[in-house]
Amino acid sequence: MSDFPSKVPSPLPDPKGDPGGAPVGRRVLLGMLGLGALGVAAGGPIQDVVAKGVDTVAQNDPTGLSDLLPGNRFRYYTVTSNTPEMDETTYRLRVDGMVDTEKTYRLSDLAALPQTRLVQDVQCVTGWRVPKTPFAGVRLSALLDAAGVSPAAKAIRFRCFDGAYTESLTLEQARRPDVLVATSMEDKPVTHAHGGPVRLYVAPMYFYKSAKWLSGITVTDEVVPGYWEQRGYDVDAWVGRSNGRDDAPTV
User: Fold this and answer.
1) Do residues 114 and 225 both lie within one domain?
2) pLDDT tens digits for the chain (251 residues)?
3) I need a labelling partner for 159 at 20 to 30 A (CA). Which of 54, 192, 214, 229 fits?
4) Residue 1 falls within a domain, yes or no?
5) Considering the entire predicted model, what is its pTM?
6) With the C-alpha atoms ordered 24, 30, 34, 36, is the resulting torsion angle positive or negative?
7) Which domain holds residue 130?
8) H/E run at residue 95
9) Quick one: 99 and 209 in the same domain?
10) Which residues 6+ apart lie within 8 Å of 11 measured at CB?
11) What is d(CA 63, CA 76) in angstroms, rounded to the nearest whole number?
12) Domain identity same for 59 and 160
């Protein structure tokens, strides 16, 4: 998933927990801090390798200690213990449901389409915020137009290849120009830990709406609440106007 809601109603797990993980010991913590320091000191290819290592460690860290890594601006959450990694040979994004023509996209297909780059704050419903974060990819509206949406359609349901996470938007929300099928984050390909190779990015909403590991876009005749929405969180998750929070808009 992209984000973990705060004030989670029972029996949901603590946002710092991961039922599939194991405690991180002193040696691992020191190793993480050393890895982060190396990334700060290094540049170019070395820094990229270090960043990938930080992603891997943080994704499997149930303690939240990886938040202390230098340069680590995000927290890492998932609702499953293991998610397969996908690449050009294995990844597919399917657009189906109430459309004239079902579509399937490879990474290269998405890259060949017109790209949009947005730079806005990321706001988690747990309270943390990452300012001025670049995302780039294909506008969701472009994929919907290519498939031909039925006049009777009203909403979109998103599926993820972790096998568990889902999300939803109304059709009007999905057609906003600041909703992307993103393949780039912070001007680099979206890493696996951040939901790559393709994730949803819904700029004006709390980050749990920006589903990681996106694999399916289904056009429906009604809103189907997503994973966390089925557990008590707002379907219309506008930043500062939902979930009982008053955060500033992500502009």
Assistant:
1) yes
2) 444 333 333 333 333 233 333 333 444 444 444 544 444 444 444 444 444 544 544 455 444 444 444 455 666 667 777 889 999 999 999 999 999 999 999 999 999 999 999 999 999 998 989 999 999 999 999 999 999 999 999 999 999 999 999 999 999 999 999 999 999 999 999 999 899 999 999 999 999 999 999 999 999 999 999 999 999 999 999 999 999 999 999 98
3) 54
4) no
5) 0.76
6) positive
7) 93-231
8) strand 93-97
9) yes
10) none
11) 11
12) no
147 CB-near residues (< 8 Å, 6+ apart): 95, 96, 99, 100, 101, 102, 103, 219
Q: Please say whether the beta carbons of 161 and 86 come within 8 A.
A: yes
The torsion angle over the Cα atoms of residues 53, 165, 188 and 107, rounded to 10 degrees, is: 120
Query: Do 47 and 104 fall into the same domain?
Result: no
Sign of the CA dihedral 30, 35, 36, 41? positive
Q: Which residues of 196-222 are buried (b: 16+ CB within 10 A; e: fewer)?
A: bbbbbbbbbbbbbbbbbbbbbbbbbee
Report pLDDT for 28: 42
CB 153 within 8 A of CB 221: yes
| Domain CATH for 192 | 3.90.420.10
Question: Which of 229, 222, 215, 235 lies closest to 155 in space, CA to CA?
Answer: 222
Side chain identity at residue 18, one-letter code: D
Q: Are residues 136 and 215 in the same domain?
A: yes
Per-residue confidence (pLDDT) for residue 72, from 0 to 100: 55
Q: What type of residue sits at position 78?
A: T
Asked whether the bond before 225 is cis by omega within 30 degrees of 0, the reply is no
